Amino acid sequence: MTTPTIELKPSSNPLSAAEREAILADPGFGRHFTDHMVTIRWTEGRGWHDGQLVPYGPLALDPATTVLHYAQEIFEGLKAYRRPDGSVATFRPDANARRFQASARRLAMPELPVETFIQACDLLVQQDKAWVPAHGGEASLYLRPFMIGTEVGLGVRPANEYLFVVIASPAGPYFPGGVKPVSIWASEDRVRAVPGGMGDAKTGGNYAASLLAQAEAAAQGCDQVCYLDAVEHKWVEELGGMNLYFVYGGGEGGTTKIVTPTLTGSILEGITRDSLLALAADLGYEVEERRVSIDDWQGHTADGSLTEVFACGTAAVITPVGTVKSARGEWQQSGGRPGEVTMKLREALLAIQTGKAEDVHGWTHEL
Ligand code: PLP
Ligand code: COI
Question: Which ligand number lies closest to the CA of residue 201?
Answer without folding.
Answer: 1
